[in-house]
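Write out the 3D structure for:
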Amino acid sequence: MNKRTIVALALTPLVALGCTKADTDAMLTGLGNAGLTPAEAECYSGVLAEHLKAKYYNEVAANLLEGEGLSQALNRGRRKYGEEFSEQHSNARNDLAACLR
């Protein structure tokens, strides 16, 4: 292997990790399925996208699309990812509560 190939192989995982993007369409659909109005879903989705890492955000969206309720989807993410997820979600709680008023 030449030096260029080795460098490319070494950087591939770093590039892949940095390319994860929040899937807002999936989140909006999932929140709608969970019973939120379109305005509430838009607000909630935006707040979560702002506070959660994309992989956590996408996990919650996937849970919602599987038919789980909002609190169940968030709890499942919290159990799967632990303290970092919990901290990010806790930082978003006041903004999230404002979305549902």
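The longest helix spans residues 83-99.
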